[in-house]
Each structure stands twice: as C-alpha cells, then as structure tokens.
C-alpha cells in the first residue's frame, strides 16, 4: 500500500456549480485540533476541507453515521492537496465524517474524534443560530464523572457517565431525581456528554431557573457484538436487565437519588428511543417520564393505565416525520395522557434535533 501523508483535512461534496454564491467568510470549525485551520465553515453553512495526499489516486468523503448523508469525490491540485467545498449548505449542528483514500478509511487529523458508526469518527460543527442553549457560559456548572459498575448478567465491568448538578456537592443532604439518557445506534456512553452537550444544556437551564436540578446517567446501550447494519440482531431484553436491574440500583446506592418511579425518567435518541419505549413499557414500575427523540412514538394502546406515565414526550426533526409525532401526541392527549410533541425546525436525524429535544424535555419532568 502506498504511504499517504495526512497533514490537514478533507473535503466534502465538490460541485462545478453552487445553488447560491458561496461567501468567502470561512472560519476554522470550533472542533478543530489546536492550530488547525481546516475544516472551515462559513456563515451560510458551507464546509470547506483540505487534505494532503500527493500519491493518492482517489479520495472521497463520507458524511454522517455510516455515510448516510452521502459521499463525494475530491479534486486533486498540482501541489498534491485535495480540496473541496460542500455543494450545498449543511444543516446546523454536529456531523460525523471520515475520508476514504484509495480504499482505506481515515480520520481527519485536523479535527477532534467522536464515537459514531461503531468507530471514532471525525466531527464538524456548523454553528446554529440558537446555539446559546448548549453554549459553555459563565454559569454554575455541574460535574460529569465516569463510573464503573459490575454487570452480573453480561459478566462485564461496564461504564457510565453521570452528570450531577452544580448544587450536588454543596448541600450534602439534598437528594435528586434521575434521568437515564440513551445514545443512538453506533454510538456509546460518550455521545451525550460530548456530541450532545447534555451537561451544558442542564447547567444553562438550571441557571435560568427553567428546570429542577437533576442527575443524568448515560451508559452504553449494547450488550453484544452487533455491528453496523445488524441492529436486527440486538436484544433489548438483555439491555433492560443491565439498565434496570444493575445500573439503576448502583446509581441509587452510590448517589443521593430520589429512588422511586415518580423521580425517575428515561429518554433516548434514535435507537436509544427504541430502547426507551421497550423498557418503559416492559417495566412501568421503574420510570415515570418517557422521552423519544427521533425514536418512534407511543400509542394509547401501549400504556396500561392512566397513572403509568406522568409525561410522554416525542420529538423529531422537521425533515423526519413531524406529522407522526404530532399525531401521536394528539392521540395520547385525547385518551387522557399528559403527552407532548416537539418538532425541531430545519433539522433531520441529527444532533441539533436531539440537543433541542433534550432542552424541551427537561423542563417537563420532575415537577
């Protein structure tokens, strides 16, 4: 195999023409490695990348989880640099990507890595107009810590991240409700703390007086070796055992929690929403609040009694199935349930949808 030197970064879709004139106000992405100029984004949402691979014969880019947002061939310059600008603006928010060079898959050395597509992928952030709600600001901050717990059912030592609110270490007698928050397919326990900004969203909402301080627990949602494209082989029942029978008792015994259904919520994005629906319906005595972020819907026939769930929340991007979540919430309300729907404007199956969903869900729970 030829040696290929990756010095800067890749390029996304290249096109001979653009839907609009591209403004030359590009700035380095906020996720870039220190001192790296590429990838860049401009005020319109276009992204520009640059990578040096002088001996390469073919360079292309895949964007999104598993390349779900497509790929494009890049153009080589006489100086050995492959460059390109997206052919259309990208949706605001976070996106995974990787580069393929002569059949090999590589991460972009110019930017940080994030776990997605069952591997560590490169990431780029298109600044959102409403990004203030997940921005790092001068407010009291909670703590996100990594914990290890034993799972007898899987014979493993497993990992979770736990967010505790700013007040947790100040009043040692106070107890807190708990949200169990799940990632999507191909991701892991690092997803919500990093890509999702769950801790910052909670910090900002607490500082604004919009939510009660709570604990957020984020763990790996898989229990077997299923790989990308094999979700059909995943057994939700096995993860139910890990979460409900092993992690919940561990958290209740190691943190100052309000250890009852009325102070316990579960939510998740995409596959995590599927897990949430399956587990909340199978174990109605454990969770009092349900949240599906691009993760399907509940129907009135799913819920066994009127007091089973205090809040049922369903959301998606406006480019997904907005009528589906809106109708599902209306049907639940008509049947007497406290149901809500939220549609993230201008987004699809992606992180700005889910960050916004968490912002909308948190103020509804633990009242």
Q: How would you characterize the overall build of this protein?
A:
- By secondary structure, the protein is of the alpha+beta class.
- Helices cover 19% and strands 28% of the residues.
- The strands form three sheets. Strands 12-13-15-14-16-17-18-19 form an eight-stranded mixed beta sheet, with helices on both faces.
- The longest helix has 19 residues, at 236-254.
- The model is unreliable at 1-18 (pLDDT under 50).
Largest sheet: 8 strands, mixed
**Proportion in helices:** 10-25%
Radius of gyration: 22 Å
Look at the structure and give the mean pLDDT: 90
- Looking at the structure, what is the overall shape? globular
Distance between the termini: 60 Å
Strand content: 25-35%
Total number of strands: 19
Helix/strand/pairing category: alpha+beta
| Order of neighbouring strands in the sheet with most strands | 12-13-15-14-16-17-18-19
Give helix and strand order, one letter per element, not per position.
EEEEEEEEEEEEEEHHEHEHEEHEH
Separate helix tally: 6
Residue runs with pLDDT of under 50 for 5 or more positions = 1-18
């Amino acid at each position: 195999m030829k040696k290929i030197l990756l010095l800067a970064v890749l390029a996304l879709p290249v096109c001979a023409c653009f839907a609009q004139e591209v403004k030359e106000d590009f700035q380095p992405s906020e996720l870039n490695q220190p001192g790296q100029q590429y990838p860049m984004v401009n005020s319109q949402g276009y992204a520009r990348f640059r990578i040096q691979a002088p001996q390469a014969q073919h360079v292309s880019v895949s964007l999104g989880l598993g390349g779900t947002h497509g790929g494009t061939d890049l153009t080589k310059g006489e100086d050995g640099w492959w460059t390109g600008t997206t052919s259309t603006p990208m949706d605001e928010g976070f996106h995974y990507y990787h580069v393929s060079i002569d059949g090999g898959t590589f991460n972009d050395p110019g930017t940080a890595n994030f776990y997605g597509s069952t591997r560590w992928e490169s990431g780029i952030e298109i600044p959102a107009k409403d990004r203030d709600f997940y921005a790092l600001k001068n407010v009291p901050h909670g703590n996100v810590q990594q914990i290890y717990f034993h799972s007898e059912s899987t014979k493993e030592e497993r990992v979770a991240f736990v967010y505790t609110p700013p007040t947790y270490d100040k009043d040692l007698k106070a107890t807190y409700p708990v949200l169990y928050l799940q990632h999507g397919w191909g991701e892991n326990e690092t997803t919500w703390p990093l890509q999702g900004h769950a801790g910052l969203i909670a910090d900002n909402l607490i500082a604004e007086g919009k939510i009660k301080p709570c604990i957020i627990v984020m763990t790996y949602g898989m229990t077997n070796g299923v790989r990308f494209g094999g979700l059909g082989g995943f057994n939700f029942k096995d993860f139910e055992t890990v979460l409900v029978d092993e992690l919940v008792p561990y958290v209740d015994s190691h943190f100052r929690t309000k250890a009852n259904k009325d102070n316990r919520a579960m939510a998740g994005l995409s596959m995590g929403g599927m897990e949430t629906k399956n587990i909340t319906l199978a174990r109605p005595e454990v969770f009092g609040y349900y949240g599906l972020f691009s993760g399907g819907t509940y129907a009135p026939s799913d819920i066994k009694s009127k007091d089973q769930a205090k809040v049922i929340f369903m959301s998606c991007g406006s480019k997904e199935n907005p009528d589906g979540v809106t109708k599902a919430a209306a049907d639940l309300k008509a049947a007497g349930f406290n149901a809500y729907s939220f549609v993230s404007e201008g987004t699809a199956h992606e992180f700005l949808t889910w960050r916004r969903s968490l912002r909308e869900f948190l103020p509804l729970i633990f009242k």
